[in-house]
Amino acid sequence: MYVVFSYGMGANGTAILLRWLFEPGTRPPELLPDLSNLVVITAHTGDEFLDTAIDVELHVYPLLAEHRVRTVQLARAGHFERDGIVVLDDTREPILCLTSGAYALSEELVTTATVPQTGGIRKHSQRFKAWVMDQFIKTLTCGEPYVHVMGYDVSEPERVVGDLALGLPNKLPTYPLLDWGWDWDACARYIYQRIGVRWKRSHCVECPFAFSVTKGGQARTIPRLLAHPYQAMDTLTMEYLAVACNPKQGLLAGKQLYDLLAAWPGGPILLDLFHRHLDAIEWAVYDVRRGFGSKPGDAMKRGQPARSMGPLVTGTRADMLAHLERAAGLLGRRLESDGRHHRVWWRRRGIYFPTVEHLLTVAPALAHDKTNPAFPKLWRNGLNAARQLELAI
Ligand code: SF4
What we know:
The chain is of the alpha/beta class. It has helices spanning 11-22, 50-66, 105-111, 123-141, 157-164, 176-180, 184-195, 217-227, 229-245, 257-262, 267-280, 317-331, 375-384; strands at 3-6, 38-44, 70-76, 85-91, 146-149, 171-174, 283-295, 298-315, 336-337, 342-347, 355-364, 370-371.
């Protein structure tokens, strides 16, 4: 029977692998006497910090290669499920950790001018990790039962409960860290004892959950961003574009990473680099329209939103700003600025729903034309609703 190990490259998964390699007595019975039926799978989002890839290449892959453990690296191939997955590597001698993936989560976010959502279930994580793994596992196991190993620790009972209900029907879930009574700190300690490395958190550069103040996330993640300026440029550009199109969309649950960096020692140096980056890339004037439905029976409560947006014209940053100023004059509206983002509001949303909003803005020319299928109806309903006071946001 296959033992499929979902390896997210964090401390939890790394500690399990190391313990199984160094202490064979801790392995499940399916991995005795050898590891020939173990398959270590990583689904890359394309956005991991580069230092994670380096740690995996330096400290984990040589051990997996020494023990001839089958190691598979996967990525989502495109926006649609019909695009399938890409097998980046499938070998018993892993060398390179291919964290740039294929179709990256950041590509999806930037082309739709948005940031990872922090509310509800992490749909993007399921799309870029769980779904990708399931496609490979289906082919690997051909419907036969398999042991599925996850690195959830004792502090994550809710994730274990969620995982029990997910996945393919022939999955036999196993959580070694629960059996061992280990949490993240215990895993980090074990790794340090075994290989002398202080293991870093594994997550996307743009992960909003990594900045949690209560768990020391900012103190961990901001220095990492400063140490990876090129990856930080992409994240700041993503946030800039999303906020230009929707002022409520900072990366940190509405708040902006930019502001956090501005107040952080060393942050302004990175932001200076960011501004020069913005000056050097192509810009666009975007037309952004949103329709908002109402909750049944309550015109004060917002229902389903939908958006239609796309670039109208592209060129240099200065030229696009000049276009926006001219558009403001032609529409008889003010060009509004918060110091970084510039917008012309054609229509602002009202207090009651349904309602609409319509703006023009300038931002890097990275987002594509995109109209949500629900948009035409919500837009029409909002336009046809009774006239009302507009909200300035
Ligand atoms: S690390 Fe964060 S941003 Fe990346 S997939 Fe997971 S939850 Fe989303």
